[in-house]
Amino acid sequence: MTIELLSANHAAATAATLAGRANRRARGFGGGVYPITPQTECIEFLCKQEFEKGRIVRVESEHSAMAVCMGFSLGGARSFTASSSNGLAYMTENVYAAALYRLPIVMMAVNRTLGPPWNIWVDHGDTLLLRDSGWMQFYCEDNQEVLDTLLLAYRLAEHPAILLPAMVCQDAFVLSHTMMQTDIPTQDQVDRYLPVLDLPHRLRRKPVTVGGLDFPHETEVHRRQHEEAMRRVPAIYDECRKSFEEVFGRRPADAVVPYRMEDAEIVLISMGTTAATVRKAVDRARDEGLAVGALRVRMFRPFPGRELAALLAGRERIAILDRDISLGHGGVLWSEARGFAPPNALVQNYMLGLGGGDIRPEHITQVLADLRGRRAADEPLIMEVAT
After folding, report:
1. N or C: which terminus of the chain carries fewer CB neighbours within 10 A?
2. Helix pair 274-287, 361-372: axis angle to 10 deg
3. 331-340 pLDDT tens trace
4. From its phi and psi, is residue 296 left (phi > 0), alpha (psi between -120 and 50) or beta?
5. How far apart are CA 264 and CA 290, in angstroms?
C-alpha cells in the first residue's frame, strides 16, 4: 500500500481503476461517463487510465452513460460510472433499469443540490430521490471510506446471492475536492479481494430479449426476488467487511456507526460528513455533563432498521438531522428512521445545511438546546442557524 494525498473524486477513480483491472482475466471493465460538477474530476482521472481489457466511453448525456454501463455489464464486464444532482435525475430511467436487470454496476454519486435554482453545493436529495430504485446506497464520511467502499461495493454487488447495483455517495466539495491522506492498496491486494466477475445472466451467443414485457404475476415474482436479495445484503456485507480486513488490514464501518452511545439519553442521527461535526458537538456536550451520543447511518439501502432499533432502545430524546428535504413532509432520513425509535421517545427532525450551507459544531449545539427544551416533538424544522 501507499499513502497519498487524494481528493475523494480521485480516490473513487483510483478504486474503480483497481477494480477494473482486477477483472482482466474475465470479461474486463468498462463504463459510460459524462461530466457534471462536482464529479467531473473523477471521470477525468478515470479516462486517463489504461485497462488491459475494456475501456471508458465518453457519451453525450448521463442517460447514455448508464446505458453504456448496462451494455458492458450485460456482456459480463465489471462496470462503473459517476454522476451528481440533475445528472442523476436525467439518468433515472436507466438507474431503475440497471437494478431491475440485476446488474452489479457501481456508481460514485457526489451529493449536490438539485436545481433550479442552480446550486453546486452539497445536499443529499439527489441520491435520496433514487432510494426506491433498487440500488444499494452507502454514504461516506471521508476519502478513505470512499475508496474502501467502492472496492467493497463490487464484491457485494457481484456476490451471487445479491447481484444488485451499488451507489457510493460522498458530499460535494466537502469531500469531492478536499485532499486527504488516503491509503491506496496494491493491484495484487485488489486482485485477491475481488473475484473475477461471472455474471450468470450475461449475454452469450444464443439470442435473448432483455427488458421484455412482464405480466402482473411475473412482475410480482421479480419484485419478490429483488426484495429477497436486498434482505440478504446485511449478512453478505458483513462477510465482505471481514474479507476486506483480511486483505487490507482495516475493516469498513458498520451499517450504523455508534459514537459514545453506552449511556446516552440523547441521540443525534445523521449521514455523511455531518456525522464528523456531530461528534465534535457530542464531545462538547459530554464535557458539560450531558449524556449525549450519536449514530451515523452509513448504509441507507437496504435501510438498517433492525440495527437502529437496537441502538435506540431506551433513549429518551432523539434528533434526526437531514441534509435534504422532502417538500411538504420533512427530512427523508427522519421519515425512515423515526419508526425505529422507542415508543415513548421524543423524536424531532431538523433539516440543516440545505443547499450546501455550513454545518458547524455550534449549529449542532443549537439543535441540542432546542431538543432539550422541548416538551413534545413538533413538525420538522428547517434550522435557521445563528452565524
Report:
1. C
2. 60
3. 999 999 999 9
4. beta
5. 8
